Amino acid sequence: MADIVPTPAPPRGLADIPGLKQVGLLAGVAAAVAAAIWLVLWSQGQNYTVLYGQLSERESGQVMDALTAAGIEFKLNPSGAVSVPESKVQEARIRLASQGLPQSDSMGVEMIQKESALGNSTLMEGARYQSMLETELARTIIKVQGVQSARVHLALPKPSVFLRDARKATASVMLQLYPGRRLEPGQVAAIVHLVASSVPELGASDVTLVDQAGSLLNSADENAEAAASARQFEYTRKLEESYQRRIVELLEPMIGSGRVRATVTADLDYTVTESTHENYDPQKTAVRSEQTSNESRKGGEGSEGIPGALSNQPPGTSGAPVIPGAATPGNPGAPGAQNAASAGPSSSAQRSTRNFEVDRTLSYVKQPVGTLKRLNVGVVLDDWQKVDADGKVTTEPMSETDVKRFTQLIKEAIGLKEDRGDQLNVLNQAFKGSIAIGPVESLPLWQQPWLKQLAKQIVGASLVLLVAFLVLRPLMKSLTKPAGRLSASVDDVEGDRLSLSGPGKAIKLSPSFEQQIVAARTLVGQDPRRAAQVVKDWVSADG
User: Fold this and answer.
1) SS3 call for 505
2) The whole model's pTM is what?
3) Mean pLDDT, the chain, as a whole number?
């Protein structure tokens, strides 16, 4: 039998491998190296968190410029979101907030500064002006503390020369507040008056203010009953909190922090009372003006009587007796006639007008709204706590003297008036569970950030080693593995048996001749060069 014995051959190189296998091996090596590099970068790199999402191109550019100037690394996602390392999220937001970024993409004054095309209609110019005014108002409202973003809508009617067609301007403001923030009543009133003062013919009652939750922040009618009730309740609550804070701040330094509880109920009178008084004092008078008129009249010579012809003519002779020596119409010069004429009738009149000023008091009184009618105060005090020399804490109830002393102190602190009906009740009672809070425990070891980063690096190094030993090492070993070369030598012929020996292992074929032929043909088809060498050796061996 002829044995085909392999002889040692030089190592097989990359050039001896078929082209398809070469491409596959190179691709596998490249993929393994890339995976190893990615694992190293992943273990050493930082996690990126979205800083701002869904930004416009203009806003993204402003944010990236600010981050570049601050020296903070960032990534821009295709959706427009900007991501920064997780450890620098807060720093980046604070830096951007100090610069007012990101800003709205709307244009305010820039819209007017931008060159307008020729031939714009009056309607377009008016629309641009209104849009600019809304944007500028929104930018101003954003400056208010607690407001994240704002939108302003103005309804400006066209001016009309007819009074019956005139309409008032109205405004609506939508606010987006920061999470957990709320606006104080003073801030709401300030925003409403800011908008009302910025638009001509716009009253504060025509401004509607709404937050992101759809809650109405201001009332359209400030004099409405609901608005008045809300203001009264808010005022009462603040007054009660003020009294409670006074009591707690006064007693806590003496008794201990968290060991004083106070509740105050205030009864306020919100009735509006107006009164006018006018009083006169008749005992207090003064002459304001006085007018006196005197008139006197004496009778003289000549006839007197009713004016007319008859009174001017002497009467006719009658049967009257004639007195001797008396004056007659025909004899005026008789004795005593002159005295009688001089002693004619006389009259006098005197008129006096005197005006007095009476003392008068006019007063107008309007009672203040929210008058305090009554106070009900309840205070609970914890027991005394004492620490002995061994550090053991013991409690001891307060004495009656201590309770009375604290009661008097509370009365003077809040201005308690017993004649007004105010009541105060001070009670000493041991508090349940008033144990001092111990120090906050630190995070467990497995939740520490540095441990997470270390575990991440260890996992990355382990994956790199697995790739190196399970992928790269077998590939390199297959490339450098030596291949046996067939050499033919006729060592032994035993019947019809043919044995093919590989390196370190003999492959024995079936004694069937057909199988031997098939095996030989297969060997020749797989490696013709080696088969030709075998035949060459046979020929040289036979001589």
Assistant:
1) strand
2) 0.43
3) 75
